[in-house]
Amino acid sequence: MKKLYFFVPFILLSCKSNTTAVTEKTSKAVSESKEITYKVEQADVSDFLKYLSSDELEGRETGTKGIEKAAVFLEDFFKKNNIKPYFSTYRDTLTNFKTPAYNIVGVLEGTDPELKKEFVVLSAHYDHIGLEKNKQADVINNGANDDASGVTAVAQMAKYFSETKSNKRSILFVFFAGEEKGLLGSKSLVQKLQKQDFNLYAQLNIEMIGVPMKRDYLAYITGYDKSNMAEKINEYTGKKTIGFLPKEAEYKLFYRSDNYSFYDAFKKPCQSISTFDFENFEFYHHPSDEFKVMDIPHMTSFIQEFLPAVTQIASSKTQEITMKN
Predict the structure, then answer these.
(1) Domain membership flag for residue 3
(2) Are 67 and 61 a contacting pair, CB within 8 Å?
(3) Domain span at 268
(4) Residue 229, in any domain of the structure
């Protein structure tokens, strides 16, 4: 996550209070949605995250050999799961970084002749902060939670949609570089998409979901009041999936991750999801942010719980997620 000076670790995303109980409207929406029989495999989550946060990648700083290895790994994952390149290749070269750097961008076309003209963006940043400059026992900032965990979630969602073909809208799967340098990857990409008259419906960006919160909801969302996304996600899952975290609003986390670049360009619902709540993880931008401190069962359950929500976002007959005044 982009560094927050003078604040607590990447004070992630937002979700307005009103962690409301499931209403009759919610129950109706859930009953009308298709049952998700697909099961996210814990071994897939573990294996993917373990490599992406391994010492071999040396902290995945943008512009280094380590993030190049990560890029190849993500390209291979897309190929294996039949996710096509959105551009001529999976690599989208950043226009605002001094050395070659790439977002990794894949697309899965929607199954509906009309709805496929609309896009949902599922994203996370795969870069981190690299190596410590001070000599110490461990100099690798592995970035398991920040944000290899989010990349893992998006990757498993991509696998799900590729296998089930349950998306009527087209889905752009994006792994951003340069987030830690100032949201550079997302800023670069939106400029290109705007020139294409990209028809964006909504973006769901995932940040730091490697450990659970001790709250009565699963995650929070940035910019809770900006749209009805939190409310709709809870309708789609039939659970208290999204709640409101006051710290998110206090530190304006909506503006501090790659969702903001998309919102700024398209003025559509573009928000980030997180389970980092300032109390459950002490290794933000620290060499101890490693695979061994990640909660794999929690991550697997997180991805599983979000499948009904992302399915509905990608397939509802109308654009049910809307901005608020």
Answers:
(1) no
(2) yes
(3) 35-212+256-315
(4) no
Has residue 24 been placed in a domain?
no
Buried b (16+ CB within 10 A) or exposed e, 54-63: beebbbbbbb
Q: What's the pTM?
A: 0.91
C-alpha radius of gyration, the chain, whole number:
18
Nearest-angstrom CA–CA distance, 273 and 46: 20
Q: What is the three-class DSSP state of 78?
A: helix
CB pairs under 8 A, 24+ apart, for 77-84? Answer: 77/48, 77/155, 77/158, 78/104, 78/106, 78/158, 78/173, 81/158, 81/159, 81/162, 81/163, 82/162, 83/107, 83/108, 83/158, 83/162, 83/173, 84/108, 84/109
DSSP state of 49: H
Distances (CA, A) of 161 to 131, 225, 274: 35, 29, 21
Could you give phi then psi for residue 314, rounded to 5 degrees?
-85, -5
**CB within 8 A of 233, min separation 6: which ones?**
221, 241, 242, 306, 309
Token representation of residue 38? 């697909």
Cα separation of 323 and 66, whole Å? 39
CATH of the domain at 261: 3.40.630.10
Place of tokens 């999204």: 242
Residue 155's contacts (CB-CB under 8 Å, 6 or more residues apart) are 48, 74, 77, 173
The rounded distance, in Å, linking the Cα atoms of 187 and 261 is 5
Is residue 282 within 8 A of residue 8, CB to CB? The reply is no
Residue pLDDT tens, the chain, 325 long: 666 543 333 333 333 334 333 334 444 444 344 589 999 999 999 999 999 999 999 999 999 999 999 999 999 999 999 999 999 999 999 999 999 999 999 999 999 999 999 999 999 999 999 999 988 999 999 999 999 999 999 999 999 999 999 999 999 999 999 999 999 999 999 999 999 999 999 999 999 999 999 999 999 999 999 999 999 999 999 999 999 999 999 999 999 999 999 999 999 999 999 999 999 999 999 999 999 999 999 999 999 999 999 999 999 999 999 999 7
